[in-house]
């Protein structure tokens, strides 16, 4: 095959000339985004990202603190894995019911309750004095946390095909920033009595001596209160039959907010008109298909997210890198920066040009190099700079293609869901993606343990190979889908 044919094939994959699956024509003017609404969504997603990922740093140290120095590594690993799965599992149980409830009581009420319960839960987690308390603090708030379900439904109702990609990019941006800040916050503020000389309340028996992981949780709880206040003041209800209930801002400043509210109502009306024209054609993609696709996308990336730290921290005799936590922190930060830049500047333009269906497939296939680059870092003979360079490259690639596939899968759900039950559909999607995130730690630990037990050349690649297979299979699932109203 000639170089020209390879180039043309690659260009066709990344930026197809045919517009068969575009969600909006390139020359169609973009509807103005509801800025106040999105500001509150961004703050809420940032807080949720922080409170969900904060335990990624703290849990292992917290379990060691609870169980004492005589606990076996096997027990530490099992208890840490269970704690990591607690919050996603509880959201798996509650997401669909909360999505259905939001179709009756509205999106805003669910978001308000979610932020308050999450704030209280993360503070209770940091204040825990034993393993059972910490597990309950992660499990119970998740049963009332339907923020992601309600906000996805809200964006589906307040945006149309011209601006939904940009709105979903902002939604994902909030989570991306939070997921970077969460582990860092835990690492910097956890165990302050050991990290900072003369820190207050560190005398024997005082607050931060008895509860060494409370400080980062207090800061995170404060972020939740800020998000809650932004919901009260800035956020408008988008459920069609409750749209008259505006935000506190619209009640206090009706003249200034009228254009934003009009844009919100016009967009919702336009979105409903589009759906009435294009929904339910026999050959079109169903909501069930998009929900299944989103869950598989989440599982593929969660596998990489969970397996990478295990591999990076594993001893070199087990074909890992044996790197300390701080050495892996910088590649993670780099990936977060790439995610923020790409989601703000490039992703909305790209998805509008090629459509969400093509973008989700490119995101899945484009992320495959990560499943090779990460384990391949163990082949450079223990040289620190090449190892970290490969991790930087892998995290940068992940920052681009993860947001591309995950955000596009969300857009497809809103496009396929009937407007009368968009909350229930997003609830089902959140339930299955949460189940994927709950299964991820267990699957990764099992896959790594099995790979290590084989003691064969290249064993470190086996777990990552599963991520690659899952991504390819998911891309083939999306290949058979068809956007509403497209031939």
TrEMBL record:
GO MF annotation terms: transmembrane transporter activity
CC terms in the record's Gene Ontology section: membrane
Bilayer-spanning residue ranges: 167-189, 213-234, 327-350, 362-380, 392-417, 461-481
SUPFAM superfamilies linked to this entry: MFS general substrate transporter
Keywords for this protein: Membrane, Transmembrane, Transmembrane helix, Transport
Domain (Major facilitator superfamily (MFS) profile): residue spans on this chain: 37-482
Pfam families (alphabetical): MFS_1
Record's bilayer topology term: Multi-pass membrane protein
Segments of skewed composition (Polar residues): 259-273
Location in the cell: Membrane
Segments for region (Disordered): 259-287
Alphabetical list of PANTHER family matching this protein: MAJOR FACILITATOR SUPERFAMILY DOMAIN-CONTAINING PROTEIN 10, MAJOR FACILITATOR SUPERFAMILY PROTEIN
Protein name: Major facilitator superfamily (MFS) profile domain-containing protein
Organism: Symbiochloris irregularis
């Amino acid at each position: 095959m000639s170089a020209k044919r390879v180039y043309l094939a690659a260009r066709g994959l990344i930026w197809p000339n045919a517009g068969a699956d575009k969600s909006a024509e390139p020359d169609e003017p973009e509807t103005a985004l509801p800025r106040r609404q999105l500001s509150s969504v961004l703050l809420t997603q940032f807080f949720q990202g922080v409170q969900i990922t904060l335990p990624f740093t703290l849990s292992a140290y917290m379990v060691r603190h609870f169980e004492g120095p005589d606990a076996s590594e096997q027990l530490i690993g099992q208890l840490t894995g269970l704690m990591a799965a607690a919050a996603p599992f509880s959201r798996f149980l509650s997401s669909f019911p909360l999505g259905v409830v939001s179709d009756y009581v509205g999106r805003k009420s669910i978001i308000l309750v979610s932020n308050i319960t999450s704030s209280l839960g993360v503070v209770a987690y940091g204040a825990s004095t034993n393993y059972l308390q910490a597990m309950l603090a992660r499990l119970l708030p998740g049963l009332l946390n339907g923020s992601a379900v309600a906000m996805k439904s809200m964006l589906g109702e307040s945006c149309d095909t011209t601006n939904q990609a940009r709105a979903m990019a902002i939604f994902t941006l909030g989570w991306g920033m939070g997921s970077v800040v969460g582990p860092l916050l835990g690492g910097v503020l956890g165990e302050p009595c050991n990290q900072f000389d003369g820190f207050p309340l560190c005398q024997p028996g005082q607050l931060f001596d008895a509860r060494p992981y409370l400080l980062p949780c207090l800061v995170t709880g404060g972020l939740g209160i800020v998000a809650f206040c932004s919901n009260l003041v800035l956020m408008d209800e988008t459920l069609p039959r409750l749209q008259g209930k505006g935000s506190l801002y619209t009640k206090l400043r009706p003249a200034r907010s009228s254009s934003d509210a009009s844009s919100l109502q016009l967009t919702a009306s336009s979105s409903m008109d589009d759906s009435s024209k294009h929904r339910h054609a026999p050959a079109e993609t169903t909501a069930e298909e998009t929900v299944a696709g989103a869950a598989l996308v989440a599982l593929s990336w969660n596998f990489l997210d969970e397996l990478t730290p295990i591999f990076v921290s594993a001893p070199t005799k087990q074909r890992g890198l044996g790197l300390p936590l701080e050495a892996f922190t910088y590649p993670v930060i780099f990936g977060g920066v790439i995610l923020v830049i790409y989601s703000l500047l490039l992703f909305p333009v790209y998805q509008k040009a090629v459509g969400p269906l093509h973008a989700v497939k490119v995101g899945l296939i484009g992320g495959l190099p990560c499943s090779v680059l990460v384990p391949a870092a163990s082949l450079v003979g223990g040289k620190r700079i090449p190892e970290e360079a490969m991790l930087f490259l892998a995290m940068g690639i992940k920052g681009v293609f993860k947001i591309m596939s995950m955000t596009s899968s969300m857009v497809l759900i809103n496009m396929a869901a009937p407007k009368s039950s968009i909350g229930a559909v997003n609830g089902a999607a959140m339930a299955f993606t949460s189940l994927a995130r709950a299964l991820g730690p267990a699957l990764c630990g099992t896959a790594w343990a099995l790979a290590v037990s084989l003691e064969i050349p290249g064993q470190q690649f086996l777990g990552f190979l599963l991520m690659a297979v899952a991504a390819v299979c998911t891309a083939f699932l999306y290949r058979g889908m068809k956007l509403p109203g497209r031939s």
